[in-house]
Each structure stands twice: as C-alpha cells, then as structure tokens.
Design brief:
- The structure holds three protein chains of three kinds.
- Chain A folds into two domains: 1-69; 70-106.
- Helix content of chain A is 79%, strand content 0%.
- Chain A has helices at residues 4-8, 14-37, 41-63, 71-102.
- In chain A, helix 2 (14-37) runs antiparallel to helix 3 (41-63).
- Chain B has a single domain (26-208), classed as Cytochrome c oxidase, subunit III, four-helix bundle (Four Helix Bundle (Hemerythrin (Met), subunit A), Up-down Bundle), CATH 1.20.120.
- Chain B contains six helices and no strands.
- Chain B has helices at 2-9, 27-56, 66-95, 99-129, 143-174, 180-205.
- Chain C is 62% helix and 1% strand.
- In chain C, strands 1-2 form a two-stranded antiparallel sheet.
- Classes of the chains: A mainly alpha, B mainly alpha, C mainly alpha.
- At the A-B interface, helix 1, helix 2, helix 3 and helix 4 of A face helix 1, helix 2, helix 3 and helix 6 of B.
C-alpha cells in the first residue's frame, strides 16, 4: 500500500534475480582471469573498468530495482554522478600525469 | 501515516502537480537514493584520489600474489554478491507480507556480510603482519598502504553499519514493525555497499597483482 | 470548496521542555536552533575580525587589555603573526560554514520551506533533528580548536597542505588545533548532506495539492537548488577531510610531497600532492559559494516582489537562472587554482566556464531591476536589505569577472582585491539576504514585529559600512597589496597604503558596533515588539495563511490546496492588490 510502484509493475520472478547473480559471478570470474593473465596496464584498466560499470549497472538495474522504476527517477539520479565523475577524470589527471613526468614519486 | 495514503491516492492528479509522489517512490526510498548518490561521490573522490597518487608515483608496488590474495578477495566478492541476492529475496518476501521468510533472508544477508568482514579482517591482519602500515610498507611507495587501508577501511565501515542496520530491520520485522518500504530502503543501502566493492575489487586487488 | 479534504488529524505538540525546544523534531524549532547557532557564530566571527583589523591598522600599538585576555597570542599586548593567522582562519571558517551555510539554508529553509510548499513538516523530522545536532557538535569541536593547546589552527579556511597536513613540525597552531579543525569540518559535512537530502525529498514529495513546480516561491527554488549543490559537494569535501585527517593522524602522505623541508627539517613523507587537496577542496568550495548566496537570491526575489507589489519579473527565467548558476557552479572550481601550478589547459576551460556564469547572474540582476521598475515600492527595512543585496551582488559580481580571467588573476590572486571581491559577494551580500529574511520573517517566527526605525538605522550604517570596508580593498589589491600579511609596515612600497588600512579598520569598528542596533532590536522585539498579525506584509505565499507563529503542525491538520502562483500582486480584476496562493478566487484575466 505504501509502495505505489508495486501496483504498476508485476514483481519480477526470483529466477530473474538468480540469473543476474550468475551473470555478476561470471563477470567477476572474467576479472579474476584477467588478473591471472596480466595484460598491459592500460588494457587491463579499460577492461576492468568496463566490466565494473556493467556489474554496477546490473546491480542498480535489478537488485536496486531501478529497471522497474519510472525512467525519470533514473534520469534524476544517475546523470549527476556521471557528470561529476567525468569532471574528476578530465581535470584531476592532467596534474597527476605531470607529477609522474616530473618524477616526484622517485 | 494516513497522509502518506492521501498522497498516494492523489497520484492521478499529475506527477508534478503537488499532492503526489512525482517518481511514484516513497520519501524513505527516495531519501535513501539521494544518500547513496552522495555517498557514492565520497567513494568516487577517494578512488579518484587513489588513481591520482598511484599515477604520480613510479614506485607504486604490486605486491599481491594471485594466491592467496586475489583468491580471498574473490571469495569475499562472492559473499557480498550472494548476500545481495538474499537481500533481494528478503525484499520480495516482505512485499508478499511473508514476515518469517523476510527474516530468514535477512539473517542470511547478515551472515554474508559477517563472512565478508571476517575474511577482510583476517586479510588486514595478515598484511599488517607483513609490515604494511598506513605510513610505510616493505614494497614501495608508502601511499600503497595508505590508500589500501583508507579505501577498504571506509568500505568495511559501511559493511559494519549495514550489518547493524539489517540486524535492526530483521528484529523489527520479527516484532511486526517496519513497513515494506523500510526493508526495501535497507536493501538499497546494502546493494550500494556491494556496488562499491565492485570497483574496489578490480582497482585495489586485481591491479595490484605481482607480475610474474 | 468542493475539494476532497485532506487527512484531518492534528499532530499534538510534544510535552516537556526538552522534547519541545531541545531535541525537537519540529522543523520550525530546528530552524530557530540553526538561526541561533549562526547568530552565536556570527558574533564570534565578527569579534575575531575586529581584533585582526586592529592589528592591521596599528601593528605596533600596545593593547595591554588584550594582552591579558590572550596571554600567548598577544603576549605583552603585541599580536604575534601566528595569532593573527589563527584569527583570520577562525573568522573565515566560522563565517563560511557556521553562518553563511547554516543561517540562510538550514535556518530559514528549515522554518519556511515546509510551510511554503504546504507540508506539515519535513520528510524526515528525526533526521532533521540529527542534522542540527551533528552541526552543533561540529561547532563545539571548532570552538575547541580555537582554544586547543599549541594554538588555534592557522592555515586559513581552505587549509592548504602541506602545512595543514604536516602536524606540529610546521609550527604553532598546526598541532591539535588543526586536527580538531579538520574533524569539525568532516562532522559538518555529514550534517549538511543529511540536511540536503531531507530538503530535496521534502520539496519533491511533500508539496500540497496544486503546488506545482511553477507555483513554488523562488525562495523554495533557491533552497532546493542549494540542497542539490550541498548533496553533491559536501561528500567530496568529506573525502578530502578523511584524507587530511589521515595525513595528520595516521602518518599517510596523500597531500605531502617527497623531499619537503619545513622549519629546517626534512619531512619523512613522499609521493603525495598538495594539488590534490586543492582539487578536492575547491570542487566543494566553489559550489559552497553558491550554497551561501543562492538562498539570498531567493529571499531578494521574494522581498522585491512583495514590497514593489508586482509579480517577479520573468519568474521562469529567475528559477532557470538559479538552476543554471548551480549547474555551472560545478564546472568552475579551478578558477580558485589559477596560480596553484594546475595544468594551464584546464585553466583556460575553467576561465571560460567562469565567465559563462556571468550570463545567468546578469539575467537575475536585470530581472530584479525589472521587478522594481514602476512598482509601488515600500521601503521597509526588509526591502532596503533586499535592494542592498542586489547592489552588493553587482559590486562583488563585476570584480568576479576580473578574477575569472587567468591573466588578470595571476596578478590579483594574492592581493586584497580577492578579499574585497569575495567579501562583497559571498560575505556581505549573503549576509544582507539573511538580514532581509530576518526583518521579513521575524513576525512569522516569533509573533512580534521588529522595530522599523531601528531597522532602517541598522541598514544605512551596515550598507555604507561594508562598502567603506571592502571597496578600498579593491584599490589596495590593484595597487599590489598582498593579502595574508599580518604586518605590512615593514614594506616600503606598501607604506603609502597604510592610511587605507586605518580607514578600513575604523569603518569595521563602526559597522560592527552598528550591529548592536540589530541585536537590540532583535531581543527587545522578541519580548516587547508589537504583536504581529497573520499577514503583516500583505504577501501571497502560504506561510502568511497561518497564525504567527504557526501551530505545531503548521496548518492545523488540514493541508492547504494551492490555486495560484507565488507572486500574484496587483492582478487586474482582483479584489485586493494581492492574491493568496490558496485563495480559490478566479481571475478574469489570466496571467
């Protein structure tokens, strides 16, 4: 009664959540394999972060129920995070790279 | 709350027109989402800071062995992911008004969280035994230990808070208190803690494996 | 009215002094608690500023009385440079965090946001109480830092490392005092972000029937925008604070580079970067500037409209501009770092984005003027402060355009020009917003009117006073007077500017003394003021539909229904020159 969203959408079956869980485990397994094989750092970072973003999206969409909420809730919450993370990446790392090139960390 | 009912009744009046819930989501759930966004930014800032100092230091160590470090971390990931699954089950059970099942799944979730904590504490002790400190470590840049303890420490703090939170929810559910929204809200927090680990695991563990 | 009546149930006020006034969950009591917390902090902060102004004007004079009050900082009546710096640090910290962040947002916002949207309380009343008490603890810790052994913190309100991160080795005031300072700030972050999520949820979910987004008063828009900024900015400062505490207490070196020699000792740290703190701090710090000023913008819009008896000019443009300022506010933190050694490419981007904020700011200014244009202006004290706000906003904003350009900033950044600029815009402009709000809402909050003649005396002294204090600083800055120096009398090239220092100090003392008019008025009116009616200003928003002060649950258990926009003044065909938001009166000519 105090949960209006439930009235509009049928509650997804447990089977769906178990599948999501299996997918999350599989993606984790891929990460572990990457850790075992060891690729060049840039490639590793790209692959690992892509996998993490997919995992985070799965958790948010299914476990955290965002997939079954109204789209505008997603549009209210997610862009702020994405924009700020982009800002961090664009403006923090040039300074860090310069420190690396200066060799301050010995 | 009877005015909550009134607000839900008035839903048809246009989403933004007042007297209704624009997202069709109750205040508690929405408030928890806002908290999660805010907390996610704290973790993001810390992870970016970690990336920043790691990039700046050429002597950044990669001391972890595949076995046992990464294997332990993988088991810890398994614990958290499974506890998220049981949490989903708890929320679903509470929506069916099945309180005994809700409690069962909640306790299972707490068990997953506790298992994670035990493994994690054990790992901390091992690393401290090897000489890793926030201010120095035997392998290279002192910031390795600093960022490891900061990131995993803050995450561990969140797990501890989550376990206590879920404990309260489980006990209250058993006593016939707390609404379905309360359980769902605690679930959101728990999944968020899980989600943060999905970034700490690759960045802190997988990328610190010793080349060999 | 034919409308379905809302849930009729009266919340009874809690019994007992402690539940009612101390650990209250009533948003109105919490708002007043925040207000008094800010009042305490502003008096303390102002006294500190008068102290260091005395030193700047007469650096070699002997203040025997002060020497007895501060036996270490002013031994023998002479101020040490360290004591000067800690005074400046504590002045800045108290004012920015405990006055400008708490009073306009948490104070007035708490009290009036729920009433103005027609709700009986905030969405999370208990969390609201917790936010206040967390903030209170932060203030207690901050005041403790002032009296810490080894001296009060002295690294400025921005606490730049490496000095702030090193601990005792970097000199007096960098021991326990600085640690307490960082801890206080971390606590403050938690309280603020909890408050922010409460505000956002309340605004979105608890609006009364008919209170569409486009009928919300601009004050509500301002508090709402501010809350979004606080929700997204404070967690980043929290992260920075955690790292700084660890640097100080845990021996880590996030912000401390290798090979640093301080006080002739080689520091045993390596690998960190002070620039990282500046990024984290200013990522919070710039939105913080808007957290301080946006509520003032909302109040100014409300007051200008009410006392001109005219609708706000360009309502949609006004709240859009506010949202735009909030949004752009996240993209410009680097303009505080032009001389920090940050990548110059970033600086170009930050500079352009900073200048872009001039556009929504100008929209707001012209719309305020448009609101005044051909209005039937009533020069109440509240109105005077609102007009003063616009004036100071323009003065401070224009100098911001100077500073937003990298080439000019390189020269001006470490001079008094910057001190003048940010005091004008985020200091006194925001303060004028607080004063305006106080004169406007005092009758609603305490059920009594403030004395108008005293209010006007207060306004003129303060308005002329702050201009006399901060305007000369711009001139000194352009002439090259560096800021942060405790004593400029040893530098020949600055000696010609010394009379200005003396002038500023005299102006500061006069202005500070004039605040007694306000305090006197405030406390006298609290007990003896004229009883306030329900709607003394003939204003339209919902807080004026309830008794002064409002009952425990605001609307007596019957939530209002809203039919009108927030600023329907002088509507042709209406019975009076204003239409209350909840009045079912139909207008012939649609606006």
């Amino acid at each position: 009664m105090s949960h209006p969203a439930g009235a509009e959408h049928a509650e997804p079956a447990s089977k769906l959540f178990i599948w999501v869980w299996i997918w999350l485990l599989l993606l984790t397994a891929v990460e572990v394999v990457l850790g075992y094989e060891q690729y060049p750092v840039k490639l590793m970072l790209t692959m690992l972060m892509s996998l993490s973003v997919i995992k985070a999206a799965l958790i948010m969409a299914y476990f955290m129920h965002l997939r079954f909420e109204k789209l505008k809730l997603v549009l209210t919450l997610v862009p702020a995070l994405v924009v700020i993370l982009c800002l961090f990446s664009i403006f923090f790392f040039p300074d860090s790279l310069r420190l690396m090139n200066l060799g301050w960390g010995r | 709350m009877s005015d909550a009912e009134v607000r839900v009744e008035a839903l048809g009046a246009g989403d933004w027109g007042g007297g209704s819930l624009p997202y069709a989501v109750g205040s508690k759930k929405f408030g928890m989402w806002l908290f999660i966004i805010s907390d996610a930014l704290t973790f993001s800032a810390l992870l970016i800071a970690y990336g920043y100092v790691r990039l700046a230091n050429k002597n950044w160590p990669e001391p972890f062995e595949f076995y046992p470090s990464l294997v332990t971390a993988t088991v810890m990931t398994l614990c958290l992911l499974s506890s998220s699954l049981t949490m989903v089950m708890a929320v679903a059970a509470r929506k069916r008004e099945d309180r005994p099942a809700t409690m069962k799944w909640l306790w299972a979730t707490i068990a997953g969280g506790l298992a994670f904590l035990v493994l994690h504490a054990n790992e901390w002790l091992k690393l401290i035994g090897e000489g890793m400190r926030p201010f120095s470590n035997p392998w290279g840049s002192p910031l390795f230990g600093a960022s490891f303890f900061t990131l995993t420490g803050l995450h561990m703090f969140h797990v501890v808070t989550g376990v206590c939170f879920l404990g309260v929810v489980a006990v209250a559910t058993g006593r016939g208190k707390f609404t379905s929204e309360d359980v769902e809200m605690s679930g959101l927090y728990w999944h968020f803690v899980d989600l943060v680990w999905m970034f700490i695991f690759p960045l802190v563990y997988v990328l610190s494996i010793h080349h060999g | 009215m034919g409308e379905p009546t809302h849930a009729v149930h009266v919340h009874h006020a809690p019994k007992g002094f402690i539940r009612k006034y101390i650990f209250s969950t009533d948003h109105k009591v919490i708002g007043i608690q925040y207000y008094f917390l800010a009042l305490f902090s502003v008096v303390l902060g102002m006294l500190l500023s008068v102290l260091f102004r005395l030193h700047l004007a007469w650096p070699n004079a002997n203040w025997d009385l002060l020497g007895k009050l501060f036996p270490t900082g002013m031994a023998g009546g002479l101020m040490t440079p360290e004591f000067y710096l800690s005074l400046v640090t504590m002045h800045g910290t108290l004012m920015v965090f405990f006055v400008l962040t708490t009073a306009p947002q948490s104070g007035f916002g708490n009290y009036f946001l729920p009433i103005q949207i027609g709700a009986d309380d905030m969405a999370f009343p208990v969390l609201n109480m917790l936010s206040f008490w967390i903030t209170f603890v932060a203030l207690v810790v901050m005041v403790m830092a002032l009296f810490a052994t080894g001296g009060a913190p002295l690294s400025g309100w921005t606490a730049y490392p490496p000095l702030s991160a090193l601990g005792k080795i970097s000199g007096p005031g960098e021991g326990l005092g600085q640690t307490l300072w960082v801890i206080s700030l971390a606590i403050f972050c938690v309280g603020s972000l909890l408050g922010a999520l409460n505000f956002i949820t309340t605004t979105l979910n608890l609006r009364a029937k008919g209170m569409t987004l486009l009928r919300m008063p601009l004050t509500v828009w301002a508090w709402f925008t501010t809350s979004i900024l606080a929700l997204l900015a404070f967690p980043v400062l929290l992260a920075g604070g955690i790292l700084l505490v660890l640097d100080r207490v845990g021996g880590t070196s996030f912000f401390i580079p290798a090979g640093l020699v301080v006080n002739e000792q080689l520091v045993n740290h390596s690998g960190g970067s002070p620039l990282l703190w500046q990024h984290l701090f200013w990522f919070f710090g710039h939105p913080e500037v808007y957290i301080a000023i946006l509520p003032g913008m909302g109040v100014a819009s409300q007051l200008l409209s009410t006392f001109s008896r005219k609708p706000v000019f360009g309502y949609k443009a006004m709240f859009s501009a506010m949202l735009a300022i909030g949004f752009l506010g996240f993209f410009v933190w680097g303009h505080h770092m032009f001389i920090s050694g940050m990548s110059p490419y970033s600086a170009v981007a930050f500079s352009l984005l900073t200048l872009a904020i001039g556009v929504p700011s100008a929209i707001k200014t012209f719309n305020w003027l448009g609101t005044l244009w051909q209005g039937k202006i009533q020069f109440t004290s509240a109105m005077l402060f609102a007009i003063g706000f616009v004036s100071l906003f323009v003065t401070g904003g224009v100098s911001g355009i100077f500073l937003g350009q990298t080439s000019l900033d390189l020269y001006l950044h470490d001079t008094y020009f910057v001190v003048g600029h940010f005091h004008m815009i985020m200091g006194v402009a925001a303060l004028f917003g607080i004063f305006g709000a106080t004169y406007y809402w005092f009758p609603k909050m305490f059920g009594r009117m403030l004395n108008e003649p005293l209010g006007k005396i207060h306004f003129w002294f303060t308005f002329i006073g702050v201009n006399a204090i901060f305007f000369p600083m711009h001139i000194m800055g352009v002439a090259g007077h560096p800021r942060r120096y405790s004593d400029a009398s040893n530098f020949n090239y600055l000696s010609s500017m010394h009379p200005l220092h003396e002038f500023i100090t005299v102006a500061a003392i006069v202005t500070a003394t004039a605040q007694l008019f306000f305090l006197l008025n405030f406390f006298w009116s609290l007990w003896k003021g004229k009883k306030a009616e329900m709607n003394p200003w003939n204003a339209t928003t919902l807080e004026w539909t309830v008794p002064s002060p409002p009952p425990h649950d605001n609307f007596g258990g019957k939530l209002p229904v809203v039919y009108h926009g927030a600023y329907e003044y002088s509507v042709p065909g209406a019975k009076q020159d204003f239409i209350m938001q909840d009045s079912p009166e139909k207008i012939i000519e649609a606006t």
